[in-house]
Amino acid sequence: MKARVLVTLKSAVLDPQGKAIEGALRSLGVPGISSVRQGKVFDVEFDGSDPAKAEATLKDACEKLLANTVIETYRIEFVG
Amino acid sequence: MKAAVILFPGSNREGDVASALKHVTGVTPSIVWHADTDLPAGTDLVVLPGGFSYGDYLRCGAIAARAAIMDAVRAHAARGGLVLGICNGFQILCESGLLPGVLVRNARLRFVCREALLKVERTDTPFTRRYAKGAIVRYPVAHGEGNYTADTETLKRLEGEGRVAFRYVMADGKRDDTQVLNGAANSIAGIVSEKLNVLGLMPHPENHVDPLLGPTDGRALFESIAGVLERA
């Protein structure tokens, strides 16, 4: 079983990296982009096949290590 | 006094801080490997040195904060033992929950390596009592992620409780709000724990100790610690 964890900065937290990327896109002439926020993606593989158990494990992993909940939020998706 | 400097893979300032401690106290601290589970018996001071533990992977200090030795460091802090985190050590303290908030990428995305002017905001902590009240000191800084941030409530609490130990200032002593250095909230350079026994700061006092290398503004920090522990 595979899961994807997305960790993103909370909306109130400034993201200087996202701002720099946004500026670079603008200077490349890529049109229509009003804002860019950078985040992280973790692709995780599981041995078992119990999605409830996997979700609980991943939630624990996010709280313990993958996300710093002072500034970040996380979302867990199952990808089949 | 017995000091233990924790060594993580990627630490690189453990020698600097060990040499500063030896210079000021005459005693060489022990270097403790991160995978150990106990501190040497009778440890008075734990130092988390600067560097790039685990290559700054995931987030600065995040993986080191979960190292085996950190349970012993937490227990030491809970007993009232002194803990000093410098630069990456400050990041580790924040990631481990020993200090609130977090250090993120410098506002201008640049690694800053220069001297910074700091105001010693409190002189009644075990780390700062040898400084004059309101003293302006020069410590070097060398970091890419020294932009201290916390939610509004935490910042309010830190300020209300007077837990900002060091603040970046301009030459005239006024708070440096230009954001040129790293963009830290309220220009915070270092904070202490509620019981004042844990200090985390981004600048490097250990590099301004020996007159051979120039300024000695950092010396009083180590003298403060030594003085407190001698009396204990």
Query: What is the H/E string of chain A?
Result: EHEHE
C-alpha geometry of chain A = elongated
Quaternary structure state of the chains depicted: heterodimer
Structural class of chain B: alpha/beta
pLDDT < 50 stretches of chain B: none
Order of helices and strands of chain B: EHEEHEHEEEEHEEEH
Q: What is the mean predicted local confidence, pLDDT of chain B?
A: 96
Number of domains of chain B: 1
State the secondary-structure class of chain A: alpha+beta
- CATH architecture heading of chain A: 2-Layer Sandwich
Pfam families (chain B): GATase_5
Subcellular location (chain B): Cytoplasm
EC number (chain B): 6.3.5.3, 3.5.1.2
Main location (chain B): cytoplasm
Produce a short descriptive summary.
The complex is a heterodimer of chains A (about 80) and B (about 230). By secondary structure, chain A is of the alpha+beta class.
Could you explain how this protein is built, in words?
The complex is a heterodimer of chains A (80) and B (232). Chain A has two helices and three strands; from the N terminus they run E-H-E-H-E. Chain A is of the alpha+beta class. Chain A has a single domain (2-78), classed as 2-Layer Sandwich (Mth169, Chain: A), CATH 3.30.1280.10. Chain A is elongated, with a radius of gyration of 16 Å. Chain A starts with a strand and ends with a strand. By secondary structure, chain B is of the alpha/beta class. Chain B has one domain (3-231): Class I glutamine amidotransferase (GATase) domain (Rossmann fold). Chain B is 23% helix and 24% strand. Chain B is built from five helices and eleven strands, in the order βαββαβαββββαβββα. In chain B, the strands form two sheets. Chain B has a nine-stranded mixed β-sheet, with helices on both faces. Chain B has a two-stranded antiparallel ribbon with strand order 5-8. In chain B, helix 1 links the parallel strand 1 and strand 2. In chain B, helix 1 crosses helix 5. The longest helix of chain B has 13 residues, at 219-231. The mean pLDDT of chain B is 96. The A-B interface holds A 12-14, 16-17, 20, 64-66, 68, 70-71 and B 58-59, 62-63, 66, 95, 100-102, 104-109, 149-151, 183.
